[in-house]
Amino acid sequence: MQIEKLESIKSVAADTRGKHRVLAELKRLEQETRHLEEELDQLEKMEAVSAVCKEILSNVETRPDPLLPT
Asked: Which segments of 1-70 does DSSP mark as H helices, in order?
């Protein structure tokens, strides 16, 4: 009789820990989802990267490299 009670107590405790792990993982995934959504929002608000790259490239091409011999 006592063995059955111990087994039922162990199964309840194991179930509670398992439930906690699942809830903790769910919370972590929700936080990661929110973070990725915020990052996507920031990317949508950014200026087109190609325009910035063209501007940087034109600046780099027009200036001589001080480390290269002339």
From this structure: 2-45, 49-62
**pLDDT tens track for 1-41:** 566 665 665 666 667 778 888 899 999 999 999 999 999 99
Euclidean distance between the first and the last CA atom of the chain, given in angstroms as a whole number: 94
19-46 b/e (C-beta count within 10 Å ≥ 16 → b):
eeeeeeeeeeeeeeeeeeeeeeeeeeee
pTM, full prediction: 0.48
Residue-level length of the chain = 70
Phi-psi region of 19 (alpha: psi -120 to 50; beta: other; left: phi over 0): alpha
Cα–Cα distance between 28 and 66 in angstroms, integer? 49
